[in-house]
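FAQ: What does a ligand-bound record look like?

Like this one, built around nicotinamide-adenine-dinucleotide:
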Amino acid sequence: MIAKKMYIGGAWTDAASGKTFETLNPSTNEPFGTVPLAGSEDIDKAVAAARAAFPVWSSKTQAERSAVLNRISAAIRENAEEFAMLGAKEHGMPAKLGFGPTMGASGNFEMAATYARATGGDFIHSSKPNVLYCLDRVPIGVCALIIPWNLPLFLMSQKIALSISTGNTCVVKPPSVNSVIGLRLAEVIDGVEGLPKGVVNVITGPGSSVGHALAAHPGVDCVGFTGSTETGVSIMEAAAPTLKKVVMELGGKNPAIIFPDANLDQALESLGHHQFFNCGQACGSPGRYYVHESVFDAFLEKLLACAKHQIVGDPTLPETTMGPMVSVEHANKVMSYIESGVSEGAKLVYGGRRALDKGNFIEPTIFTDVTPSMKIYREEIFGPVAVLLKWKDEDAVIDLANDNTYGLTASIWTTNIARALKLGRRLTVGTFSVNGHNLIAPEAPWGGVRQSGIGKEGGWQGVLEYTEQKMITINLDEE
Ligand code: NAD
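The answer part, i.e. the structure of the complex:
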């Protein structure tokens, strides 16, 4: 079993209480790692270390910070194979597929390093000729970064990179089920030259205690959170008394709207991938397919082929395309959605059962005959479960797509680009894609509206989220 320590103020430490907890291998549910269980003393220590490092790090030049971020990027790349295998063993993502997000983690630091060098402010021309107004961009202070389990390395790297690029310091709480991955990233970061102690701190423990305490902590200035909407609400409540800035990337139930003139092969290459990638445990995974009735059968046939093509099994093997769900609890939750789909009258056309005789494996699953009142239609399943509806009226389908509390992302599939752009404008989402789904890139900001989030992550806008605007006014009168 792998044992790790927390990373506080540049030192490797056990919990003050001496308590630990175990993470599991989701393929077997046998113990995988043991990590410290942080308590309030450890949380205070980590926040104090980040506060102490803030004046040091924020007064470095942009070039100095940028150089450190580039070194972290390179260090992740050098360890990419190990990270991908670690992801397979502690999280369940097939190592071969996990290599991409691992390189993405490296790319997050590289992108932030580039933008960090360009961060600056504006001169403002005003009606007062003898006053010079300048708007500066400054770091916020100490950021608590709370990470979900679905892409732990990628999302942790994104938040760390964005926040520290402009001079913030941080205390990171990885998802408890993937704590070893989080602490391994801390080790890689620690090995990089030029990062002052305390700029990055990583503490481990459950969200309900450690995450909550960080969100509420008076020594924390900003909370960067990715996770479920429910947890986002509770974090906002915890952060409210001290009026912290929050950046939130939350859940989604993402529509994919397929028109009669869509290139179905192109659509399925992308949608089929995103439906089953990481067992559907992705915020941007297609959550509701609206397929025009004239192409419904053809679309279904191709989606079925994608499902049948999946190889569910040991995520350390190169041929595996779908590993286990991340935990017993989450697998049970996804199975309960499948059961509710059946009991509410949807037609289960493929899968729907657990796969293999141990671990948290679930078959790729497809439902048709879904109606808007069903739970599988309205709620985020976060599993390998495709939910299909037929449509025939263009206005009605846009209304249906918008009739949800989420607003993360959507895709429109048609060869009529003008139509796609016009309809896309009517979708209440943070991102809509035309003839592609989840076309993410480190340079492109990502984020939802409504109950899918607040603010953007990634790209220049993502860097700016972790800054404050500070006005500098200078009186130019000479007497
Ligand atoms: P989660 O909300 O259960 O947990 C996320 C993190 O919050 C974990 O580190 C957890 O320990 C912590 N946490 C839990 N309760 C807390 C509390 N009361 N106070 C503070 N922290 C707490 O989410 P999850 O199950 O790990 O991740 C899946 C969710 O994340 C899905 O809803 C998915 O859509 C969302 N997600 C969104 C994006 C995006 O970019 N919009 C990206 C990835 C995942």
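Follow-up question: can I read anything off the structure? Yes, for example: Residues 146-150, 155, 173, 175-176, 206-208, 211-212, 215, 226-228, 231, 234-235, 249-252, 283, 380, 382, 408, 448, 452-453 surround nicotinamide-adenine-dinucleotide (CB under 6 Å).
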